[in-house]
Amino acid sequence: MAKLLSVSDALGSPAFSTWRSYYQLTKPKVIYLLMLTALVGMCLAVESWLPPLQATFSLLGIGLVCASAAAINQILDRNIDDKMARTQGRPLPKGRVSVRNASVFAGVLALVGFVMLLLAANLLTAILTFASMLGYAVVYTLFLKRATPQNIVIGGLAGAMPPLLGWTAMTGQLDGNALLLVMIIFTWTPPHFWALAIHRRDDYAKANIPMLPVTHGIEFTKTCVLLYTLLLCAVALLPCLTGLSSWLYGVVVMGLNLRFMQHAWRLKFKPQPNSAINTFKFSIVHLMILFLALLLDHWLL
Ligand code: HEM
Ligand SMILES: CC(C)=CCC/C(C)=C/CC/C(C)=C/COP(=O)(O)OP(=O)(O)O
Questions:
Q1: Burial code of 101-133, b = ≥16 C-beta within 10 A, e = fewer?
Q2: What ipTM, to 2 d.p.?
Q3: Residues contacting 54, CB < 8 A, separation 6+
Q4: What are the TM regions of this chain, as residue ranges (predicted)?
Q5: Which CATH superfamily is domain 24-172 in?
Q6: What CA–CA distances, in Å, run from 166 to 161, 251, 289?
Q7: Which of 180, 183, 215 has the alpha carbon at shortest distance from 197?
Q8: What ranges do the domains of the chain cover?
Q9: Which among 22, 57, 163, 251 could disulfide-bond with 120, CB atoms 3.0 to 4.6 Å apart, if both were Cys?
Q10: Looking at ligand 1, which residue's alpha carbon is closest to its atom 19?
């Protein structure tokens, strides 16, 4: 009993809540999925087992730079985040972390991440990771997000990069199959985000952010979700055609594609109040299982 009390005391302590605020600055769940895609890129790049030290520190390096990009995004977006119900509770709008401390935190994460990439991976990976970080934290956040409803389509390229970063970390070279993995996440991003943006349309309108449902309406956005889902379904099959993956991945991805199409179709033609948020949630399951299937197929067949 005493032990249980001391655990709950520790969780409620100021030190833990400070630690949790910094952790939240990194958008942890997004980062874990990004790191999974980078890890799969690494595994698919080599025929045998991964070199343990090189792979561990490269993956950590990619994760730390992504986390830094997420923290910079929250620093630059703190005034927008304060206006939206979904983001109001974040550490910066709530004043739980100061802008100065968040900036130091983001700087340290980026620095440690780059040094790790330079030491464990190679210069190409460090440069590509730096470019992706700038693409998301500066180009998307500061310019595109505030300027055009195509913001997430263009900005999505940065978030799609981790499998390529994982690949180059192991081989030091660009590869067509790695670009194919990037294409999968690139075409996945619009249905992933626009489904959420439909659900949160009023939040974005209130914050004056030109997301597609605000500028072009909900019906048009639903059509775009459906069309991009179709495109994603086609692109997701390409690893079978290029020989990167075989029947196991093919069977799993066909099941995933059918389910995603069902969500997108329902959202457009038979909507229920929670169709949009359910489509968003399924998009995350879709990408996670798709990358796990790529890995299993690579290992088992
Ligand atoms: C420009 C591209 C992207 C945009 C605009 C975008 C946008 C968003 C937004 C607004 C959320 C909601 C976060 C919240 O509830 O506070 C979200 C959640 C999420 N996104 Fe994305 N996303 C993008 C790319 C990605 C990528 C590339 C991945 C991973 C490969 C990813 C994985 C996730 C995950 C796992 C969540 C759930 C987070 C949670 O429940 O806390 N996203 N995304
Ligand atoms: C090095 C590298 C690959 C960097 C990219 C890393 C990264 C964190 C990509 C995630 C994309 C994402 C969560 C966008 C949402 O931003 P938003 O501002 O539209 O969402 P919000 O309103 O929830 O903050």
A1: bbeebbeebbeebbebbeebbbebbbebbeebb
A2: 0.95
A3: 120, 121, 169, 170
A4: 30-50, 56-76, 97-117, 123-144, 151-170, 176-199, 220-238, 282-300
A5: UbiA prenyltransferase (1.10.357.140)
A6: 9, 25, 18
A7: 215
A8: 24-172, 175-301
A9: 57
A10: 30
Of 6-20, 112-126, 211-225, where does mean pLDDT reach its minimum? 6-20
The two three-digit tokens of residue 299, written as one number:
């290992």
CB-CB contact of 194 with 225 (8 Å)? yes
Instruction: Give the pLDDT of residue 16.
Output: 72
User: Can you read off the two tokens belonging to residue 43?
Assistant: 């595994």
Contact, 280 vs 192, CB < 8 A?
A: yes
Q: Which DSSP string do the residues of 216-229 spell out, in sequence order?
A: H-HHHHHHHHHHHH
Given pLDDT bands bounded at 50, 70 and 90, which one contains residue 9? low
* 233 touches 257 (CB < 8 A): yes
Whole-number Å distance, alpha carbon 47 to ligand 1 midpoint, is 31
CA of 159 to the centre of ligand 1 (A): 9
Q: What are phi and psi of 49, to 5 degrees?
A: -70, 155
Q: Does ligand 2 have an atom closer than 6 angstroms to the CB of 113?
A: no
Residue 1 banded pLDDT, cuts 50, 70, 90: very low
Q: Which atom of ligand 2 is the closest one to the Cα of 145?
A: 19
Looking at residue 25, its pLDDT comes to: 98
Backbone φ and ψ for 274, nearest 5 degrees, come out as -105, 15
